[in-house]
């Protein structure tokens, strides 16, 4: 890839190898040309395949940045290598002249290639460059300005996840936008909470229902159209809950052939659940705990504000299922380490000791589960050994497969959709994945609540019959925490 990049240094700003007086049609001129920034390729290494019939331009500056970042075992380095491989796959053995003209982008399968890929090395034109060339962002913007000045009838759009770069581009008269392909919702308020709260009695609003007893379970079959249009007002999915003010809780088991099947529960019985000595403090925690303990649910997402009980619920359920029920052989706790951790270099000690500063919440909650024990330190050590709790760095999970394991992903709001996929696909036979996160606490520069991997996964898995998501409410950590959440 580096040799090809060097060979392309001779390319001019005219990436279409045509002048304004050529025979290109008006329709060709109106095709959009998307200029892709480095952070987009890191966010989604396959992003260049997602621009349909339009032109895709990758500036040489972007290739240089990918080259600098490709070394190492971090997520960023791995994503850079994946992006470089994808670019190389599209360009193949094309000559510099062919690359300059644009290489058709294959979509795989029987689909005809759509759109073209061009690698651009612009000639620096001080007369048209609005910005100094001391920053890579400026160089990319200057490249787009140069192209636009040569072909003013064509539409050039800079795609970047850097908000400041988008602002600078617009100030220079260049269209710019975020990468939206993996943003499945425009507002996180559109995300499922995992439950519906119905005022009064749910059954007072139901006119038709078929009820059957299957073993100890009571199942209710309702018309899908009736349930959505007259009661809830929106579509329902498996493993969502309906909660009314009379103590009824219904879990959506299936949505098939226009019929929604609910499993009947009572709120009081759900509140009596217990996992490793921990009982839920509100109905949201109760339904979350039920899904965590359900062997038929293979992936659970818990979101909510700080102190809402995400980590301690997940950990209590994990220990219960590993030590008492023996459903799993081990608990793997992981999270994405922030860039600050990588800048500080390698910490001394074992992998668990290296990860300890970043997975402190896991240790804190193990301690919280054993505060009232006669010998808390002995209990904590006993649980860690019996449950086989392992702290794993997410950067080293790629390529592995975990069998009969409970994989606990903390702070998952800081993962991209591509990274989330890379982790979840590590789950082998008999494994369960629990994702914890708070979309209000994203600390990754190029992620937002709508582009977070946690949002993407929640939306993608909402129809999965073996998955569920619950947004926890309240701040039951302490009276102090509740007051601080409200007034600070």
Topology diagram in text:
Layout lengths: L1 H6 L18 H5 L1 E5 L1 H6 L11 E5 H10 L5 H17 L4 H6 L1 E2 L11 E5 L15 H15 L4 E5 L3 H9 L3 E3 L17 E4 L11 E5 L2 E7 H9 L8 E4 L3 E9 L2 E8 H5 L11 H11 L5 E6 L5 H15 L5 E6 L3 H5 L7 H5 L4 H10 L6 H11 L2 E5 L11 E6 L6 H8 L7 E6 L15 H8 L6 E6 L6 H9 L1
Parallel strand pairs: 1-2, 1-5, 2-4, 5-6, 7-10, 13-17, 13-18, 14-15, 14-16, 16-17
Antiparallel strand pairs: 3-4, 8-9, 9-12, 10-11, 11-12
Helix pairs in contact: 4-5, 11-12, 12-15, 17-18
Tell me the structural class: alpha/beta
Strand content: 15-25%
The major β-sheet equals: 6 strands, mixed
**Number of beta strands:** 18
Strand arrangement within the widest β-sheet reads 3-4-2-1-5-6
What overall geometry do the principal axes of the alpha carbons give? globular
> Which value, in Å, is the CA radius of gyration?
26 Å
Query: How many individual helices?
Result: 19
Low-confidence parts? 1-29, 340-345
State the share of residues found in helices, binned by percent. 25-40%
Q: Provide the residue-averaged pLDDT.
A: 85
Distance between the termini: 51 Å
Characterize the structure shown.
By secondary structure, the protein is an alpha/beta fold. Helix content is 35%, strand content 20%. The protein has 19 helices and 18 strands. It has a 6-stranded mixed β-sheet. A hairpin with a 2-residue loop joins strand 8 (210-214) and strand 9 (217-223). Helix 11 packs parallel to helix 12.
């Amino acid at each position: 890839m580096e040799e090809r990049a060097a060979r392309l240094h001779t390319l001019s700003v005219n990436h279409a190898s045509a002048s304004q007086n050529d025979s290109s049609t008006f329709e060709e001129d109106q095709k959009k040309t998307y200029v892709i920034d480095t952070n987009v390729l890191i966010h989604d290494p396959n992003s260049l395949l997602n621009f349909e019939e339009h032109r895709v331009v990758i500036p040489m500056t972007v290739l240089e940045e990918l080259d600098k970042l490709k070394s190492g075992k971090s997520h960023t380095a791995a994503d850079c290598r994946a992006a470089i491989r994808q670019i190389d796959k599209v360009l193949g053995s094309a000559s510099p002249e062919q690359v300059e003209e644009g290489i058709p982008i294959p979509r795989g399968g029987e689909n005809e290639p759509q759109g073209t890929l061009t690698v651009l090395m612009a000639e620096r034109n001080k007369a048209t460059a609005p910005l100094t060339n001391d920053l890579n962002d400026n160089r990319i913007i200057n490249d787009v300005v140069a192209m636009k000045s040569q072909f003013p009838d064509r539409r050039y759009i800079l795609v970047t996840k850097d908000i400041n770069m988008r602002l600078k581009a617009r100030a220079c008269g260049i269209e710019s936008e975020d990468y939206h392909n993996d943003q499945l919702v425009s507002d996180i308020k559109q995300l499922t909470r995992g439950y519906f709260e119905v005022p009064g009695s749910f059954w007072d609003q139901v006119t038709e229902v078929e009820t059957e007893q299957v073993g100890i379970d009571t199942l209710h079959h309702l018309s899908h159209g009736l349930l959505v249009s007259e009661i809830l007002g929106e579509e329902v999915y498996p493993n969502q809950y309906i909660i009314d003010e009379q103590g009824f809780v219904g879990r959506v088991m299936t949505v098939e052939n226009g019929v929604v099947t609910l499993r009947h529960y009572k709120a009081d019985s759900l509140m009596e659940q217990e996992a490793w000595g921990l009982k839920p403090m509100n109905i949201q925690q109760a339904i979350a705990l039920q899904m965590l303990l359900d062997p038929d649910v293979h992936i659970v997402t818990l979101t909510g504000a700080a102190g809402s009980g995400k980590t301690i619920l997940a950990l209590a359920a994990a220990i219960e299922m590993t030590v008492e029920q023996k459903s799993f052989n081990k608990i793997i706790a992981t999270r994405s380490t922030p860039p600050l951790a990588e800048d500080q270099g390698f910490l001394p000690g074992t992998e668990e000791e290296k990860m300890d500063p970043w997975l402190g919440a896991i240790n804190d909650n193990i301690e919280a589960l054993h505060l009232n024990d006669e010998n808390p330190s002995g209990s904590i050590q006993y649980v860690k050994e019996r449950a086989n709790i392992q702290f794993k760095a997410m950067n080293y999970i790629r390529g592995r497969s975990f069998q009969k394991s409970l994989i606990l992903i903390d702070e998952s709001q800081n993962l991209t959709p591509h990274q989330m996929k890379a982790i979840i696909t590590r789950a082998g036979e008999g494994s369960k994945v629990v994702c914890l996160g708070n979309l209000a606490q994203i600390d990754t520069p190029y992620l937002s609540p709508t582009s977070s991997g946690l949002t993407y996964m929640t939306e993608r898995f909402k129809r999965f019959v073996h998955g569920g998501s619950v947004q926890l409410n309240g701040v039951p950590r302490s009276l102090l925490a509740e007051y601080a959440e409200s007034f600070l």
